[in-house]
Amino acid sequence: MDTDERRREILEIARRDGSVEVTALAGKLQVAKETVRRDLHALEGHGLVRRTHGGAYPVESAGFETTLAVRTTRLVPQKSRIAAAAADLLGDAETVFVDEGFTPQLVAEALPRDRPLTVVTASLAVATALADAEKIAVLLLGGRVRGSTMATVDHWTTRMLSEFVIDLAYVGANGISREYGLTTPDPAVSEVKAQAMRSARRRIFAGIHTKFGAVSFCRFADVSDFESIVTDAGLPSAEAQRYSLLGPQVIRV
């Protein structure tokens, strides 16, 4: 296969498997490791993958987004720590927005069950996780359900959300960068997130370190819009400091 075909194959493998390794790709494609490294460098330059030590993982874009089912299998210990730390920032909030996605779902599960809370969400998974909590009232936003994330979108969702003034929003994203802010592949999802940002007095981003530096299609918030960013220790401390200079407290767990 020629260079373009090989790079398309590498991208397809990365999106299917969640990541690729240079050594394995070299063997599979029967090319030198340096050739694979050049291919990954080119794909990274086009914003399609992010390089790691010895490999790469795919960047979510307008043409590619991982499903909720896939997200529940990756980096779960780190996501659980992030969720617990984010839930500890609840403070005296009585009304909370919890975003779609696996990490926000874990945040919802980590919320205290011994005090009254009202949780607003577009996520069927979040609503299900909290449905049996006696002191938590769950308001599920209506709308079109996206099968890949099991969350509602479109004007029904944003219209209902716009009627609320929410104490605290836990927001997720497919990418966060200092230059482009927070992004997500789908315009309909972006609208819901943007409305949550407008409706909330306080905003916390909770996300794994692999989200940092990644840029997707639709921009819905600036880094400076958040009071706190909660991530794992995979984000280098120097990079965390650069994000903190934009305004939010950055917590690495």
UniProtKB/TrEMBL annotation:
Keywords: Repressor, Transcription, Transcription regulation. GO terms for molecular function: DNA-binding transcription factor activity. The keyword Nucleus does not apply. The keyword Repressor applies. Gene3D superfamilies: Winged helix-like DNA-binding domain superfamily/Winged helix DNA-binding domain. Residues 3-58 form the HTH deoR-type domain. PROSITE patterns: HTH_DEOR_2. SMART domains: DeoRC (SM01134), HTH_DEOR (SM00420). Pfam families: DeoRC (PF00455), HTH_DeoR (PF08220). Repressor of the lactose catabolism operon. Galactose-6-phosphate is the inducer. This is Lactose phosphotransferase system repressor. It comes from Streptomyces corynorhini.
